[in-house]
TrEMBL record:
Organism per entry: Microtus ochrogaster
Protein's recorded name: Solute carrier family 35 member F6
UniProt lineage: Eukaryota, Metazoa, Chordata, Craniata, Vertebrata
Compartmental location: Membrane; Mitochondrion
Signal peptide: 1-18
Binding partners and assembly: Interacts with SLC25A5.
């Protein structure tokens, strides 16, 4: 069935904004500027402030939700289901997980390449599968276990590619290893977030945009307040600011004032996360969850290709192998091989789009705010 212009627009919007989200964060990291008090020129390494901006982008999804509700009320649109009453505090535990995982990933992005960052995030499948068995009582199909094993193999190959690649003064080998480990550690926290969302949030039938907005609100408020004590917590060599503190928001604002392009990169990160969440949810609704996952995989290719073209990283052939293995693991875990086998064999009934969405989203839900 041919896609409509609107569906093509949504698919393109998801691919473009998802790629911009990671690339703009890495672009900001690559800038160097003087800080406050005449400090020497140094890299813009402010992961916690960047995480605050990301949550601000998620918070803006609330505006999109209420706009959709107003339009539905005027047009009697039945596609926006009536919202059940619920306590917003239900979103606090997953928001705390999101805040911790996102902050760790932004720290790691300072240490490793954008493409490895995007590929290693595939580790979430491993921990989500294990936690869903342990805490949700779910039984995984044999193909899902094979998908988990394939994902582990893919992570090993991507890690080897990072170890064997040439490293410049900005990304030393020890930093790359630390960054890769932090990304994988963050996926454990993201997996806990997904389990919490499924156990407490999904059963209330909360609209995804509303869920993203509420979690964004909690993350934005809490992390903004935490920037104050972070300004006084020493972090030694782990810190990227002249004062050696865990986060120096004032130094970040001084650098933005001296290099306005940093503000453009931060704005790209904030706005892209909001549009990406909206586009991802709309693609799942208008097309299928399979399409969303394929587009998410294409996003990794776009990020990788642009990072190479911009000279942000050096090509290593092992990355291709690692990406393909990770892609196979994702496909197996999410059941994307079933429609393919049905199409090839012509002996079994091909699942409808509704059935496909139910299987992918009902059995293996992606996180509410999958874009971070």
């Amino acid at each position: 069935m041919a896609w409509t212009k609107y569906q093509l627009f949504l698919a393109g919007l998801m691919l473009v904004t998802g790629s911009i989200n990671t690339l703009s964060a890495k672009w900001a990291d690559n800038f160097k500027a003087e800080g406050c008090g005449g400090s020497k020129e140094h890299s813009f390494q402010h992961p916690f402030l960047q995480a605050v901006g990301m949550f601000l982008g998620e918070f803006s999804c609330l505006a999109a939700f209420y706009l959709l509700q107003c339009r539905a009320a005027r047009q009697s649109d039945s596609s926006v289901e009536p919202q059940q009453s619920f306590s917003a505090l239900l979103f606090l535990p997953p928001a705390l997980c999101d805040m911790t995982g996102t902050s760790l990933m932004y720290v790691a992005l300072n240490m490793t390449s954008a493409s490895s960052f995007q590929m290693l995030r595939g580790a979430v499948i491993i921990f989500t599968g294990l936690f869903s068995v342990a805490f949700l009582g779910r039984r995984l199909a044999p193909s899902q276990w094979v998908g988990i094993l394939a994902t582990i193999a893919g992570l090993v190959v991507v890690g080897l590619a990072d170890l064997l690649s040439k490293h410049d003064s900005q990304h030393k080998l020890s930093e790359v290893i630390t960054g890769d480990l932090l990304i994988i550690m963050a996926q454990i926290i993201v997996a806990i977030q997904m389990v919490l969302e499924e156990k407490f949030v999904y059963k209330h039938n909360v609209h995804p945009l509303r869920a993203v907005g509420i979690e964004g609100f909690f993350g934005f408020v809490i992390l903004s307040l935490l920037l104050v004590p972070m300004y006084y917590i020493p972090a030694g060599s782990f810190s990227g600011n002249p004062r050696g503190m865990l986060e120096d928001a004032l130094d970040a604002f001084c650098q933005v004032g001296r290099q306005p392009l940093i503000a453009l990169a931060l704005l790209g990160n904030i706005s892209s996360i909001a549009f990406f969440n909206f586009a991802g949810i709309s693609v799942t609704k208008e097309l299928s969850a399979t399409t969303r996952m394929v587009l998410d995989s294409l996003r990794t290719v776009v990020i990788w290709a642009l990072s190479l073209a911009l000279g942000w990283e050096v090509f290593h052939p092992l990355q291709i192998l690692g990406f393909l293995i990770l892609l196979m693991g994702t496909a197996l875990y999410n059941g994307l091989h079933y429609p393919l086998l049905a199409c090839l064999s012509r002996s079994c009934h091909r699942p409808t789009q509704e059935g496909e969405q139910e299987r992918l989203l009902g059995d293996n839900r992606t996180p509410i705010n999958d874009a971070s």
